[in-house]
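Reading a protein record of the kind used here takes only a little practice. To see the layout at work, look at the sequence and C-alpha coordinates printed below.
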Amino acid sequence: MKKKLLKLSLALALAGTSTILHAEVNINAGKEKAASCISCHGENGNSMVPTFPKLAQQHSSYLVKQLRAFKDGSRKDPMMSAMAMGLSDEDMEDVAAYYAAQKISANTLPVVDDDDDAKPAADGKDPVQELIAQGSDLYRNGDLNRAVSACIACHGPLGEGNKPAAFPALRSQHADYLIKALTDFKSGARSNNPENMMHMIAKKMTDAEIKAVAYHISMMK
Protein backbone atom coordinates (compact mmCIF):
# COMPACT_ATOMS: atom_id res chain seq x y z
CA MET A 1 0.00 0.00 0.00
CA LYS A 2 2.80 2.40 0.92
CA LYS A 3 4.56 1.70 -2.40
CA LYS A 4 1.33 2.39 -4.31
CA LEU A 5 0.84 5.67 -2.46
CA LEU A 6 4.45 6.64 -3.14
CA LYS A 7 4.04 5.90 -6.87
CA LEU A 8 0.80 7.89 -6.97
CA SER A 9 2.40 10.87 -5.21
CA LEU A 10 5.35 10.78 -7.61
CA ALA A 11 3.07 10.58 -10.62
CA LEU A 12 1.03 13.57 -9.43
CA ALA A 13 4.19 15.57 -8.76
CA LEU A 14 5.55 14.83 -12.24
CA ALA A 15 2.21 15.72 -13.81
CA GLY A 16 2.21 19.05 -11.99
CA THR A 17 5.76 19.78 -13.12
CA SER A 18 4.84 18.92 -16.71
CA THR A 19 1.88 21.31 -16.61
CA ILE A 20 4.04 24.16 -15.28
CA LEU A 21 6.72 23.56 -17.92
CA HIS A 22 4.09 23.45 -20.66
CA ALA A 23 2.63 26.75 -19.45
CA GLU A 24 6.09 28.34 -19.48
CA VAL A 25 6.63 27.13 -23.04
CA ASN A 26 3.30 28.69 -24.08
CA ILE A 27 4.20 32.00 -22.42
CA ASN A 28 7.65 32.13 -24.01
CA ALA A 29 6.23 31.27 -27.43
CA GLY A 30 3.48 33.81 -26.93
CA LYS A 31 5.97 36.57 -26.14
CA GLU A 32 7.65 36.06 -29.51
CA LYS A 33 4.34 35.86 -31.37
CA ALA A 34 3.04 39.00 -29.64
CA ALA A 35 5.93 41.16 -30.92
CA SER A 36 3.72 42.68 -33.63
CA CYS A 37 1.12 43.67 -31.00
CA ILE A 38 3.45 46.00 -29.10
CA SER A 39 2.83 49.06 -31.30
CA CYS A 40 -0.83 49.19 -30.25
CA HIS A 41 -1.04 47.26 -26.99
CA GLY A 42 2.27 48.28 -25.47
CA GLU A 43 5.15 46.50 -23.82
CA ASN A 44 3.87 43.57 -21.77
CA GLY A 45 0.30 44.31 -22.84
CA ASN A 46 0.03 47.70 -21.13
CA SER A 47 -1.12 50.03 -23.88
CA MET A 48 0.03 53.62 -23.66
CA VAL A 49 -2.79 54.75 -25.97
CA PRO A 50 -6.01 55.15 -23.93
CA THR A 51 -8.29 54.04 -26.77
CA PHE A 52 -6.39 50.76 -27.20
CA PRO A 53 -7.14 48.15 -24.52
CA LYS A 54 -4.61 46.83 -22.05
CA LEU A 55 -4.22 43.07 -22.51
CA ALA A 56 -1.99 42.41 -19.51
CA GLN A 57 -3.46 40.11 -16.85
CA GLN A 58 -6.50 39.43 -19.01
CA HIS A 59 -8.01 35.93 -18.90
CA SER A 60 -6.59 33.74 -21.65
CA SER A 61 -10.06 32.30 -22.30
CA TYR A 62 -11.41 35.77 -23.09
CA LEU A 63 -8.45 36.73 -25.29
CA VAL A 64 -8.72 33.53 -27.34
CA LYS A 65 -12.48 34.04 -27.71
CA GLN A 66 -11.96 37.58 -29.03
CA LEU A 67 -9.16 36.60 -31.42
CA ARG A 68 -11.37 33.87 -32.87
CA ALA A 69 -14.20 36.39 -33.24
CA PHE A 70 -11.92 38.79 -35.12
CA LYS A 71 -10.75 35.93 -37.34
CA ASP A 72 -14.21 34.61 -38.22
CA GLY A 73 -15.66 38.10 -38.67
CA SER A 74 -18.21 38.00 -35.86
CA ARG A 75 -16.34 40.92 -34.28
CA LYS A 76 -15.50 43.71 -36.69
CA ASP A 77 -12.24 45.64 -36.72
CA PRO A 78 -10.16 45.90 -39.92
CA MET A 79 -6.79 45.99 -38.16
CA MET A 80 -7.49 43.23 -35.63
CA SER A 81 -9.21 41.03 -38.22
CA ALA A 82 -6.14 41.25 -40.45
CA MET A 83 -3.87 40.39 -37.52
CA ALA A 84 -6.03 37.46 -36.39
CA MET A 85 -6.31 35.94 -39.86
CA GLY A 86 -2.67 34.90 -39.71
CA LEU A 87 -2.97 33.20 -36.32
CA SER A 88 -3.53 29.49 -35.78
CA ASP A 89 -5.41 28.18 -32.75
CA GLU A 90 -2.05 27.37 -31.15
CA ASP A 91 -0.81 30.90 -31.85
CA MET A 92 -3.87 32.36 -30.16
CA GLU A 93 -3.43 30.14 -27.12
CA ASP A 94 0.25 31.11 -26.82
CA VAL A 95 -0.34 34.86 -27.20
CA ALA A 96 -3.21 34.70 -24.70
CA ALA A 97 -1.05 32.77 -22.22
CA TYR A 98 1.67 35.41 -22.48
CA TYR A 99 -0.64 38.37 -21.86
CA ALA A 100 -2.48 36.57 -19.05
CA ALA A 101 0.85 36.15 -17.24
CA GLN A 102 1.68 39.89 -17.34
CA LYS A 103 0.75 42.41 -14.65
CA ILE A 104 -1.61 45.23 -15.59
CA SER A 105 -0.45 48.76 -14.83
CA ALA A 106 -2.36 51.22 -12.65
CA ASN A 107 -3.95 54.33 -14.15
CA THR A 108 -3.68 57.95 -13.17
CA LEU A 109 -6.87 59.72 -12.11
CA PRO A 110 -9.06 60.49 -15.15
CA VAL A 111 -9.59 64.07 -16.27
CA VAL A 112 -13.15 65.00 -17.17
CA ASP A 113 -13.92 66.77 -20.43
CA ASP A 114 -14.88 70.42 -20.58
CA ASP A 115 -18.60 69.71 -20.52
CA ASP A 116 -21.54 69.90 -18.09
CA ASP A 117 -20.42 67.01 -15.89
CA ALA A 118 -17.02 68.65 -15.44
CA LYS A 119 -18.45 71.64 -13.61
CA PRO A 120 -17.72 71.75 -9.86
CA ALA A 121 -20.60 70.45 -7.78
CA ALA A 122 -22.61 72.91 -5.71
CA ASP A 123 -21.19 71.39 -2.54
CA GLY A 124 -17.65 71.95 -3.82
CA LYS A 125 -16.87 68.24 -4.35
CA ASP A 126 -14.42 67.21 -7.05
CA PRO A 127 -16.45 66.33 -10.20
CA VAL A 128 -14.08 63.45 -11.04
CA GLN A 129 -14.57 61.87 -7.62
CA GLU A 130 -18.32 62.44 -7.94
CA LEU A 131 -18.35 60.54 -11.25
CA ILE A 132 -16.24 57.73 -9.81
CA ALA A 133 -18.63 57.43 -6.85
CA GLN A 134 -21.62 57.27 -9.20
CA GLY A 135 -19.83 54.64 -11.24
CA SER A 136 -19.07 52.61 -8.13
CA ASP A 137 -22.74 52.55 -7.18
CA LEU A 138 -23.79 51.51 -10.67
CA TYR A 139 -21.07 48.85 -10.84
CA ARG A 140 -22.16 47.26 -7.58
CA ASN A 141 -25.92 47.82 -7.59
CA GLY A 142 -27.01 48.53 -11.14
CA ASP A 143 -30.29 50.40 -11.63
CA LEU A 144 -33.33 48.24 -10.89
CA ASN A 145 -35.78 50.89 -12.10
CA ARG A 146 -34.34 50.74 -15.62
CA ALA A 147 -33.21 47.10 -15.54
CA VAL A 148 -29.53 47.98 -15.78
CA SER A 149 -27.69 44.98 -14.36
CA ALA A 150 -24.88 45.41 -11.84
CA CYS A 151 -21.45 44.88 -13.43
CA ILE A 152 -20.33 42.98 -10.34
CA ALA A 153 -22.53 40.00 -11.27
CA CYS A 154 -20.32 39.01 -14.22
CA HIS A 155 -17.09 40.94 -13.69
CA GLY A 156 -16.63 40.36 -9.95
CA PRO A 157 -16.31 42.67 -6.93
CA LEU A 158 -12.76 43.67 -7.85
CA GLY A 159 -13.21 43.72 -11.62
CA GLU A 160 -11.44 40.36 -11.86
CA GLY A 161 -13.88 38.85 -14.37
CA ASN A 162 -14.70 35.17 -14.68
CA LYS A 163 -12.17 32.95 -16.47
CA PRO A 164 -14.34 29.81 -16.95
CA ALA A 165 -17.15 31.91 -18.44
CA ALA A 166 -14.67 34.00 -20.48
CA PHE A 167 -16.01 37.21 -18.91
CA PRO A 168 -13.17 39.73 -19.09
CA ALA A 169 -11.26 41.25 -16.24
CA LEU A 170 -11.92 45.01 -16.26
CA ARG A 171 -9.83 46.43 -13.42
CA SER A 172 -7.32 49.14 -14.37
CA GLN A 173 -8.50 49.19 -17.99
CA HIS A 174 -8.29 52.55 -19.79
CA ALA A 175 -11.41 54.66 -19.16
CA ASP A 176 -11.45 55.88 -22.77
CA TYR A 177 -11.41 52.31 -24.08
CA LEU A 178 -14.18 51.27 -21.68
CA ILE A 179 -16.31 54.23 -22.81
CA LYS A 180 -15.78 53.25 -26.46
CA ALA A 181 -16.59 49.58 -25.78
CA LEU A 182 -19.80 50.37 -23.88
CA THR A 183 -20.84 52.92 -26.51
CA ASP A 184 -20.27 50.33 -29.26
CA PHE A 185 -22.32 47.78 -27.33
CA LYS A 186 -25.04 50.40 -26.84
CA SER A 187 -25.24 51.24 -30.55
CA GLY A 188 -24.95 47.63 -31.68
CA ALA A 189 -21.64 48.27 -33.44
CA ARG A 190 -20.19 45.51 -31.27
CA SER A 191 -22.51 42.57 -30.83
CA ASN A 192 -20.54 39.33 -31.12
CA ASN A 193 -22.03 38.09 -27.85
CA PRO A 194 -24.49 35.27 -28.75
CA GLU A 195 -26.93 36.33 -26.02
CA ASN A 196 -26.31 40.01 -26.82
CA MET A 197 -25.98 40.50 -23.06
CA MET A 198 -23.81 43.62 -23.15
CA HIS A 199 -25.98 45.28 -25.80
CA MET A 200 -29.09 44.74 -23.69
CA ILE A 201 -27.38 46.32 -20.67
CA ALA A 202 -25.52 49.18 -22.39
CA LYS A 203 -28.49 50.38 -24.45
CA LYS A 204 -30.29 51.26 -21.20
CA MET A 205 -27.35 53.30 -19.89
CA THR A 206 -27.03 57.04 -20.38
CA ASP A 207 -23.77 58.48 -21.73
CA ALA A 208 -23.13 59.96 -18.28
CA GLU A 209 -23.54 56.52 -16.65
CA ILE A 210 -21.19 54.96 -19.18
CA LYS A 211 -18.56 57.58 -18.37
CA ALA A 212 -19.07 57.20 -14.63
CA VAL A 213 -18.74 53.42 -14.57
CA ALA A 214 -15.73 53.58 -16.92
CA TYR A 215 -13.98 56.03 -14.62
CA HIS A 216 -14.69 53.81 -11.61
CA ILE A 217 -13.41 50.65 -13.30
CA SER A 218 -10.27 52.40 -14.50
CA MET A 219 -9.38 53.10 -10.86
CA MET A 220 -9.97 49.53 -9.65
CA LYS A 221 -6.83 47.58 -8.74
Q: What stands out?
A: Residues 2-100 form a domain with the Cytochrome Bc1 Complex; Chain D, domain 2 fold (CATH 1.10.760.10).
